[in-house]
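Notes taken during the Thursday session

The instructor put the following on the board and asked us to keep it in front of us for the whole hour. The protein is Ring-1,2-phenylacetyl-CoA epoxidase subunit PaaE. We were told not to look anything up and to reason only from what is written here. First, the residues (339 in total):
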Amino acid sequence: MFHALRVSAIDELTADSVALTLDVPDDLRDEFAFEPGQHVIIGLDGLERRTYSLCTAPGSGRWQIGVKRLPGGAFSESRLAALQPGDTIDVMAPTGSFGPRSHAEHVGLIAAGSGITPILSIARAALAAGGSVTLLYASRNEQAVMFLDDLADLKDTYPERFHLVHVFSRQQTESELLSGRLDGDRLKRILGELVEPKTDWYLCGPLDMVTELAATLESAGATSVHRELFHVDDAPPPPRPADAFVDGGPAVTATLDGRTSAYTLTPEDDSVLAGLLRVRPEAPFACRGGVCGTCRAKVLDGAVEMRHNYALEPDELEAGHVLTCQSWPTTPDVTLSYE
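Then, after some discussion, the predicted C-alpha cells were revealed:
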C-alpha cells in the first residue's frame, strides 16, 4: 500500500544527486520501521515505480533517501526537477533483505557511486551498535562523492572504529593504490595492504563491478559476501515451455494480505507477477528486473523457473522463495504466498 508522504527537505549532495527527507507521521512510524539496507518504493503514474534505499539508521526517527539524477529518469529527472519541500509523493513501507541480520563486531562495505545509500545505513547502524566498519567507496572524484559530509561526521564520531577508504577513478591522489578503477586486481592489493578480508562483506554498485569484487573477496577468504545492485540492463522475460498453453495455461494460486486469489496465466503474461497484477493490482513489485526483491514470494506447491536473481540470498532460495517477476511455472499448478 502506498502512503502520501510529505518531502520535508531536499538537499543537494553533488552536481547530479540529492537527498530527500521524508516526513513520516506518527501513525505510520511502526509501519515504516526499517532495517539497515532496506529500501522504499515510490509510485509514479500507473504501474511505474522506482526503488530508493534509505541512508539513515534504524531508530533514528529520520527517513532519507539518496537520488541520483539520470537522463530520462521517470522520477530522478522529470519528477525531481519540479519537486519542492512540502510536496507529497507516494511511498510504500520499507522492504528488502539486504543488510546484516544480526550484530557483528566488524563488517566490510564496498559502494560505488549511488550504491553508498544502503551502505551508509548499514555503516551507521553497525557503528551505533558498537561494531567497527571498513568502507571502500569508489567514485569518479571527490566532487562526485555522495554524502561526503555525513561520511566525514561518522569518521569524526567514530575515529577508532570507522575505517573509510576513498578510491577515485578519475582523480589522482597521493596514493597510486587508491587512484584508478576499483576492480578485482586493485581490490586484491588493497586487501593485502590496508584491509582484512576475513569478515562479512556487503557490496552495492553496478552488476559487473559487484560480481568481480565479490569473487575477489570470496577467493581472499571473506566470511560471507552479500550483494545489492542499483541497476542492471533490462532482463528478458522468464522462459516459457513450448507447450505452456496447450491445456489453457498454468494455474496459479497466490495469497497476499490475507486474501487468496486464483488465476490462469495467458500468452500476454510474461511472468507469474504479470498474471497476478491483472487480478491483484496492489501486488508488491518495483523494478521487474530481479534486482530489488520486492516481488518475493514463497512457493508452497508446484515449481517455477527463475530467469534472473540478483536479490535473494542462498538461504532464501533454500526456503522456497522466488522473485515472481522473473518466474514462470514448470508445473501445471503453482501455489504461492506473499505473506
